[in-house]
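Contributing new records

If you add data, match the layout below exactly. Sequence lines come first and carry their own label; structure lines follow with theirs. Keep one chain per record. Anything else will be rejected by the validation script.
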Amino acid sequence: MGLPRKLKLMNVFADGNSYKGQITELEQPKLALKLEEYRAGGMIGSVKVNLGLETLETTLKMGGYMTEFLRQFGTTIDGTPLRFLGAYEQDDTGEVTSIEIVMRGRFGEIDAGSSKVGDDTEHSFTVPLTYYKVIENGSDVVEIDMINSVFIVDGNDRLAEHRSAVGL
């Protein structure tokens, strides 16, 4: 029997600045293929064909008032570098796994929530991404660069031939 790895500590860096003590939650991007139903003559049913990737997006929730992030609003499409570091522990073995997520994008939506004296204040930031990379214990797991047509999973460059075919 094995127990799952659970997040014990985390930190987020934005534009090189640490937000330890302010980051309360990071919603990781959903990875999804853009699939379209296709059926042609001779097929007894339809299949879903791969047309690329869906949009990548992350959401950060920060405690307190975040003027630093407000100043980042309206940058270029990949003008905001983000980095998540998480320490995940497997309770039955005590093994700690380091997960690093490197991202680039721009703040697309800022929700300052409500402000009430004596209540917690939280800002939410939605960031559409152009770049996403997951690193586990120093090893690359997934790398996606939407602008440069890079899609690597576990060392397998799934678009190398496509880039070569169009001279990239």
